[in-house]
Specification:
The protein has 418 residues and is mainly β. It folds into two domains: 216 residues, 7 Propeller (Methylamine Dehydrogenase, Chain H), CATH 2.130.10.10; 169 residues, Methylamine Dehydrogenase, Chain H. The strands form nine sheets. A four-stranded antiparallel β-sheet has the order 3-2-1-32, with no helix packed on it. One of its GO terms (molecular function) is isomerase activity. It comes from Aspergillus sclerotiicarbonarius (strain CBS 121057 / IBT 28362).
Length: 418
Amino acid sequence: MHFSLPTIAVLLFCGNVKSDLIYVASFSGNITTLSLTYDYFASTNPDSYYSLSVVDTFKTPPSLPAWITLNKHNNIIYLVDGVTTGNGTLTAYRTSSENGTSPPIQLDSVECLLDGAYAGFYANGKGLAVAHYISSALQTYDITASNGTMVPLETFTYTMSSPGPAGARQDAPHIHEARTDPLGQYLLAIDLGADKVRQYAIDMDSLLLDERPALNATPGSGPRHGVFTKDPILFPDGVSSYVFYLAAEIAGTITAYRVTYLPNRGGLQFDLLPNGTYSSLEPGTPKPYTGGKGITGELQVSPDGDFLIASNRRDKKFNGTATQYPPDGQSDSISTFRIRQDLAGKLDFVQSAPAGGYMPRTMNLNSAGNLAVVGIQEGNRVTVLERDLGSGLFKEQVAEVYVEGEIWGVLWDDYNDV
């Protein structure tokens, strides 16, 4: 439901109203700034209290804006380019004003390798690592300058002696994500093409990386993204350990590993948990035929650490109208699992909910965890779903808006009460 401008103006004077900005990167060549206005008491009647609207759209140096992320240490947005020919671009922006009336201010833009798929921070926000899919590479940058200048540091390029089991999807290494461990000691580069999670020890002063032994994932599974539990979990042997969940998009699975920190900065040891591989779809759901394309998309742990949430693509689990679920009346699913703190990180399936359209490539929770923004890649649409914090269940879709171009990145930027 969308409010008229006078109605929004009245609501903004109410003490219970909150307004958040959401940034959207799409293959239109634009970043679109959205404003979500809602009442703290929306849970009593959500459809009456949410308004999602486009505030601004602006062109970016990247011709195909892909992953977008915010460094909360310096309040700078970084945008990577998904272009697959010519030269790639990495751009830094100062965030918009709280009400989104002014666009982000470009601070720096540097040429980089092709097909940036992800950008992750390390060394307490001083370093930025960019995963390049087609270029089979990881690039790092020093981003300590207060004016947003990015200084290139290292480039790691990977090769394979022969293609992987998944054929064309694994014709070469394809880095899909770069993220740190919970203690910030190591950087992980998740390689879909080589079925590996490459890891590097971080030098906190120089920001340089030193390679450590990789985790070898299931051959042909195509690992895409990974997340750690918020806190260590007590295991039956009396030792508390983090658990790492690895989403494999080709296999459509999530695999759980116990994490051990080796002495002398020797790296992370990943031990597969017993019966620790799960379908990212609802149990009993046949894996859809995708012609080798990916199923599992985004993977996140809820802010309270109790739930693991995965977006699924191409499963077309829910049917509706073309208006309800553009473009063709079918919606893919979002799966929620409870992380069993009492059973060493075992996952219990909780719910399959409609994402709001076809191909939910990207998803981001707000800081409270009661709302999720979903980028519907093929539907040129952004949806907002409400979650119940206690049960972890998605309750309903409370807002949506059209955004030009295929949606490749969404970023929730929470602000204080209006």
